[in-house]
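Async update (no meeting this week)

Hi team, since we skipped the sync, here's where things stand on the single-chain job. The sequence we agreed to prioritize is pasted below, unchanged from the tracker. I ran it this morning and attached the output directly underneath so nobody has to dig for it. Comments welcome in thread, and please keep replies under the output.
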Amino acid sequence: MSLAPVVPGARIIGMGSYQPEKIVTNDDLAERVETNDQWIRDRVGIVERRVAADDELLVAMAAEAGRLAVKDAGIAPTDVDTVIVATCTMPYPIPNAAAQTADRIGIVAPGAFDLNAACAGFSYAMGTAADLIRAGSARTALVIGAEKLTDWLDWDDRSTCIIFADGAGAAVLSAAPDAESVGVGPVAWGSAGDLHAMIEVRPHNNALAQEGQAVFRWATTKIAPVALRAIELAGLTPADIDVLVPHQANLRIVEAVAKRLRAKGAREDMVVADDIVHSGNTSSASIPLALDHMRAAGRIRSGDVALLIGFGAGLSYAGQVVVCP
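Output:
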């Protein structure tokens, strides 16, 4: 038996993202439900969000983000051997998004599968891809978080319609040539299945529902320790983190997690993602969207050490330290 060569780990070599053109403001939503711009800003920090057209497919958004990530990596689509799409909003479970997405990009005969860990999906998929590469099962993996949450909303439910949005973000992972080049740390993950009813699609109307206050209390107390564990697994300290990219669930949750990490030694100049302000909550797409937007805006640089931490329905959570490409 000829085994694949062992590699020390994976690194990110490219990123890309996509958002629909349509912008929905808080004032737009106030025309439908009892709310206003200041109420939404105060509670979740959102100013506007992107909404896909009725005929805009999730796989189309995933493919565009993936195409841009492959281009950014400076490789050909045929160099990719594995495609993972993290999503919880495909209209039907069969066929999966990954194989269709790969075909649209021009990736030939890859291993392709979907992963559903809801808002933690991108971190779950990154951890899975990095482990596949380290084990020799993959050499170059395209990881995409893509959601069309607006297909699953009750637009008369103020607790959800003001929060969720659509989009896709992607990263290309490749084998690191040596230990010093490893750029994806071990994943710290877990779940609280006893709390699954906090966020769920209700069968009577197939619409997403959540217990907002309960989710807020859980996330603001339970997520910072997971983030600290991810830092520990990477062999680092909170002071080593240049960039914090939590799932963009709610700006108040993001701020609370950052505050807890700074209390444990994270630097005051640690850059904290706030993409939710203009993108809304895009579930598994939120972390790669935020990373790509921050990079484009010059808020992060190549080589920065970033802490990713996703959490949401399930309840599932996961985080890892990565080096920005």
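Quick observations from my side:
The two ends are 35 Å apart (CA to CA).
The chain has two domains: 9-176, 188-324.
Reply here if anything looks off.
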